[in-house]
Amino acid sequence: MLTSANLLLRVLPLLFIVAACQQPATKTVQEPVDTIAFGSCNRQDLPQVIWPAINQNNPDVWVWLGDNMYGDSDDMAVLKQKYDIVLQEPGYQQLMAKAKITGTWDDHDYGLNDGGKEFAMREQSQQLFWDFIGEPADSPRRKQQGVYSSHTYGPEGKQVKLILLDSRYNRDSLLRINRVYQINQTGDVLGEEQWKWLENELRNSKAQVHIIGNGIQVLPEDHAFEKWANFPASRKRFLDLVAATQAPGVILLTGDRHIAEISKMELPGLNYPLYEVTSSGMTHVYSGANSEPNRHRVGDLVNKLNFGVLQFNWGEQVRVEMQIKGVDNEIYLSESVVY
């Protein structure tokens, strides 16, 4: 006789199998990360042609680097509607089903073009960002000032720590005259709470590689657009902190510019070269930027639709391959470094 208890015992294993099959095919935290992909400047009302190439790389982690959609509004209903368009994109849904999703924002998804702490709706906008990225409703990150976060992937000895900064929420104002940004010599980018958090994340880390991402470029100094160099005191503080903490294998990821490039700096006090990979944009690029000064650039400037990839080859040391790729998954730029 088949009792209710016996029936439950037969059905439960099947339910577990079904549930397992429905889970995203992502690696556990105990497995080394092989591939991190990233990108920025994703205008939701333009053709979303880059997703097939991104998915071909089967990334373990996808990192948004800002302008994840173009909201430019203090109306939270407008921002939510535009985030929802991205969430409904089939190519992005395919990526979400198999990769861990994280990221930070820049100005257009923040809500105010070129904006900083003067944006009146920054608290409300922050909650929409966390909704978009999938941050749990009870997460402590929802109570902090800004969308900064850190994530550690892989087992001890083969760990990557991803540190994502918020260069909008607490950023001081920046004057713009005749389309040229003026230098704010003493202006701050992160705010003291985030600075302390960043130092702690670097000093108390056991990871072999540290990826630091934010919306705007850090190393480039020569162009006239938004960049950390417009806040020289903050830029120096950041670079000094990287050198002082001696965190191994720091690589910078940035977006914003509607171009792609790789920059490199020999930082005093650091025993390896500091690289920055800029990937932008996913749906549109700056057609006029066939050339642009950047004393730190290695390789070419790319003004075609693009996304970035980091490939990790683990051994006694780790080799990191930094790539910029296009809509056909072709490689536009490639640099490698061993830590």
TrEMBL record:
Coiled coil: none
Species annotation: Pontibacter burrus
PhoD-like phosphatase metallophosphatase domain residues: 50-266
Residues making up the signal peptide according to the UniProt record: 1-22
Protein name as it appears in the record: Alkaline phosphatase family protein
Cross-referenced Gene3D superfamilies: PhoD-like phosphatase
Keywords: Signal
Stored InterPro entries: Metallo-depent_PP-like, PhoD-like_MPP, PhoD-like_sf
Domain of life, per lineage: Bacteria
